[in-house]
């Protein structure tokens, strides 16, 4: 299995990101995808209140620590 930037990866859709933050964090909002190299990052903007950033790591990357 390849790792790093050469590894293949299926991106998370905006609807999957919205579902994830709703189910796990109770946040409903409009997603905006940020351009990243090897993971999925979204700004989640509720109708009012603070905005949030959701970062989903590429599962092919090793965790440090």
Q: Order of strands across the widest beta sheet?
A: 1-2-3
Distance between the termini: 21 Å
Number of strand elements: 3
Order of helices and strands: HEEE
Alpha-carbon Rg, integer: 13 Å
Q: How many strands, what sense, and barrel or not for the largest sheet? A: 3 strands, antiparallel
Mean pLDDT: 85
Give the strand content.
15-25%
Q: What share of the residues lie within helices?
A: 10-25%
The number of domains is 1
What is the overall shape? elongated
Structural class: alpha+beta
In the predicted model, the low-confidence regions spanning at least 5 consecutive residues are none
Number of helices: 1
General description of the model:
The protein has one domain (9-56). It has 65 residues and is of the alpha+beta class. The model has no long low-confidence stretch (mean pLDDT 85). 18% of the residues lie in helices and 25% in strands. The protein contains one helix and three strands. The longest helix has 12 residues, at 14-25. It has a three-stranded antiparallel sheet with strand order 1-2-3, with helices on one face.
Structure characteristics:
three-stranded antiparallel β-sheet, alpha+beta, 1 helix, 65 residues
SSE blueprint and pairings:
Blueprint: H1 14-25, E1 30-34, E2 40-45, E3 52-56
Antiparallel strand pairs: 1-2, 2-3
């Amino acid at each position: 299995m390849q790792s790093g930037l050469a590894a293949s990866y299926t991106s998370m859709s905006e609807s999957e990101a919205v579902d994830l933050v709703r189910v796990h964090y109770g946040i409903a909002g409009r997603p905006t995808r940020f351009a990243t190299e090897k993971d999925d990052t979204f700004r989640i903007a509720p109708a009012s209140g603070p905005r949030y950033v959701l970062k989903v790591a590429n599962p092919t990357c090793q965790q440090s620590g």
